[in-house]
Structure formats: C-alpha cells, structure tokens
Write a structure and sequence with these properties.
- The structure is a single chain.
- The chain is an alpha/beta fold.
- It has a single domain, classed as Rossmann fold (3-Layer(aba) Sandwich), CATH 3.40.50.
- The chain has 5 helices and 6 strands, in the order βαβαβαβαββα.
- Strands 1, 2, 3, 4, 5 and 6 form a 6-stranded parallel β-sheet that branches.
- It is globular, with a radius of gyration of 15 Å.
C-alpha cells in the first residue's frame, strides 16, 4: 500500500514535514509513506493555466496522487487557516478529479495549544468539497513544539507516537475496506 504524504509547509524542517517523516518511519508493515516535497515548484493556480498538458510539476503531482492508495496531508496553521501554498496545491488537483473517493487523512501539527485545529478543519472542509474520502479516524491534530521532538526529529512522547500509529492504521484500514 502506498500513501502519498503532502506537507503544507515550504520549510524542509517544519513540524509538519518532520511529522510526515515520522509517519514514514512508523507506518504499518506493508505500507509505504512517500513524500512529495515540490510544493514550491507549483505555479499559482488560475483556470486558464490548467491546460493539457499541465505544467510539469502539476502533472507529476497529479500522477502521484492517481497512483497512491491514500493521501496524508499535514498542514501548519497560519492566521487560523491552512497556508495559501497548500490551498494552491489543492486547487491544482481539484479539476483533475484525482482526489475523488481517495482515502485521505488530514493532519495538523502546531506549537499552539490547539495543535492547528482551525487549519485542520479548513483542510477537511476543502477535501470534502473536492469529494476526497476524508477518513476522520485517521485525522490528527498534534500540539507539537520542537521540544516534543528529539535531535533526529522523532517524537518523544509515547502518547503522540501511539496516536500517530493509530491514525496510520485507520487510514490503511480505510484503503482495505472502502
């Protein structure tokens, strides 16, 4: 099973990117979590730019989404919402229909006390409008300050690691049992 992981942050060492790397490390046996880290390569979306063929980065992203069994999207929270670069990614994908019925987990990691809950809610809403199959049991909001990670970027808190594993298990189960 292949899960495509998408971070809504441009920073390589963002909490969200680190959390997706942890997802890859802790994924269930038989599950591969692959990250696409070219968010910054996507042009600004506009319907008149959505041509056939699309820009190379868009074609690559859409192909990876089509090939994935599930999606794992992790968003930071900027001004109580998902960042514009993540919204731009979703706008490029909506017209292709590649997310329709695709099992999808919506995660957020934030140093705030709410763990980015507002951004996660916005992400879930957008995914549902796109007709993705949001697997609510696999959704996760982590209050994750840098102090929650060790020097290698791994979760220190066993409860957070357990929550992450449970979310991945729920996403894998949703792929197996539609």
């Amino acid at each position: 099973m292949r899960i495509l992981a998408l971070s809504g942050s441009l920073r390589q060492q963002s909490l969200n990117a680190l959390l997706l790397r942890e997802a890859a490390r802790l994924s269930p046996v038989g599950t591969e979590v692959v990250s696409w880290e070219r968010l910054d390569d996507l042009p600004h979306y506009s319907p008149e730019r959505d041509l056939d063929p699309p820009p190379a980065s868009v074609a690559e992203l859409r192909g990876l989404i089509r090939e994935a069994d599930a999606l794992l999207i992790c968003t930071p929270e900027y001004i109580h919402a998902m960042p514009a670069v993540l919204k731009n990614l979703l706008e490029w994908v909506v017209s292709s229909g590649d997310c329709v019925a695709k099992p999808t987990a919506a995660w957020s990691a934030s140093p705030s006390l709410e763990g980015g809950a507002r951004a996660q809610a916005a992400l879930v809403h957008t995914l549902e409008v796109m007709s993705a199959r949001v697997v609510h049991a696999s959704s996760l909001c982590l209050t994750l300050a840098r102090s929650g990670l060790d020097d290698e970027g791994r979760l220190k808190d066993p409860a957070q690691e357990s929550a992450l594993r449970a979310a991945l298990d729920a996403l894998a189960a949703a792929v197996v049992t539609p």
